[in-house]
Amino acid sequence: MAAKDDQFEASASALGYLYQFAKALQFCIEQWVGGLEWSVAVEAADDIEKHAGSVRELLQLKQRADGTRLTDSAPDLWKTLRIWCEAATAGRIDLAETNLFLMTTAELPPDSAGYHLQPKASGHRDEGKALTLLRAAREASSSDKLQKAFAAFDGLEADGAVGHSALLARIDVIGDAPRIDEVRETMLGHAALVVGHDLAKSFLTRLEGWFYDRVIEQMRTPGGAPITGEEFDQIFSDLRHQFGPNNLPIDPDIADLNPEPAESADKMFVRQLDLIGVGSERIRLAVRDYVRAFNQRSRWSEEKLLRVGELGRYERRLVEEWQARFADMREDLGDDATEEEMKREAKLIYRWVDREARAQIRTGLEEVFIPKGSYHMLADELRVGWHPDFTARLMALLEPTGAR
């Protein structure tokens, strides 16, 4: 039973972090719509810290099970108050310039302290009633786990302290907040407005990937820089450009692949390079381009980012460009060319692929590993080749020894 409890607590904790990340990204998207003068940080001064002009907002987030209620003695309420009381007493937050939000998926029971600390627009805000209820709950509770929270709350009324009323005036409690799946649905809606419904999920997945990496970097670095509006705008705009009608996204995890050449030693495209005497370093680069192009094209296909027949039309163009050069080479060599002459001319064809052939699937693409790697994919299927007799030579290699 203890193991199950530990597993549940670990899952709840992980879900809490994911909820923080998702809400922070949602805030970035919504702030971006209104301008660029803002910043967002996760796990900095609070779960989420936002700055917009001179206004600072600190948010505590709580994702709780269905049916949970934020009562006046709820640990979520008092642990949040403890954090803000201690920060105000120590001078880490200036209440005159800081807004505090407790955002929870829990229900706010009518006439509870949280109910009376909702935003004014709710029509239920009454800071006096909320303070009375909190003081009554504090007096009635004998919870050992909340003693530090009560002490911090009491300390706010000490001589020279800011006082309870000043703190509550800055607090908004938001109950029944959207859960993580609802947050993601909202962000998918925003993404659909930018790139259309068909591409929204792929767009958001990539934006989340960048955002999570960026937040981890911020959290791992002491005093890590928050995400600014300008930075988010650059990433968002670049990603939107990649999802334009003349472009396709290039994924960083694929663009950074550096496979071991030995893993592709038996591939036909590597044998084609061996056949004309290409050196090991250039073979390593060829394997890298092949693996990157293969994986990127596969991901585009899996996510249905390609139009019907688009890859087939692209490969036809590549093959036809190669055919013209290959035919020229064979005509120039004639029937009496030596092996040395054939290899020399074959290297020129391959050099053209390596340095000049840059036809892309769509005109907005610029990554050279796509055309170079695609040629190696075609070479792997023997649809193109470099040595004038590549088909016969390579087919002979594949025949069983006794059949030759």
Walk me through the topology.
Layout: H1 2-34, E1 38-42, E2 48-52, E3 55-62, H2 75-89, E4 98-104, H3 127-140, H4 147-155, H5 164-168, E5 171-174, H6 180-195, H7 197-220, E6 227-228, H8 229-242, H9 252-255, H10 268-275, H11 280-302, H12 310-333, H13 339-355, H14 369-380, H15 390-398
Biggest sheet: strand arrangement: 5-4-3-2-1-6
Q: Stretches where pLDDT falls below 50 for ≥5 residues? A: none
Order of helices and strands: HEEEHEHHHEHHEHHHHHHHH
The largest pleated sheet is described as: 6 strands, mixed
Assembly category: single chain
Could you give the distance between the termini?
68 Å
- Beta strand count: 6
Overall mean pLDDT stands at 93
Structural class: alpha/beta
Tell me the overall shape.
Answer: elongated
- How large is the radius of gyration? 31 Å
Approximately how much beta-strand content do the residues carry? 5-15%
As a percent range, the share of helical residues equals: 55-70%
Question: Any key phrases for this structure?
Answer:
single chain, 404 residues, alpha/beta, 6-stranded mixed beta sheet, 15 helices, 8% strand
Describe what this molecule looks like in 3D:
The protein starts with a helix and ends in a 6-residue tail after the last helix. The longest helix has about 35 residues, at about 1-35. About 55% of the residues lie in helices and about 10% in strands. The chain is built from 15 helices and six strands. It has helices at about 1-35, 75-90, 125-140, 145-155, 165-170, 180-195, 195-220, 230-240, 250-255, 270-275, 280-300, 310-335, 340-355, 370-380, 390-400; strands at about 40, 50, 55-60, 100-105, 170-175, 225-230. Helix 2 packs across helix 4, helix 7 (about 195-220) runs antiparallel to helix 8 and helix 11 (about 280-300) packs across helix 14. The radius of gyration is 31 Å and the shape is elongated. A six-stranded mixed β-sheet has the order 5-4-3-2-1-6, sandwiched between helices. It is α/β, with parallel strands linked by helices.
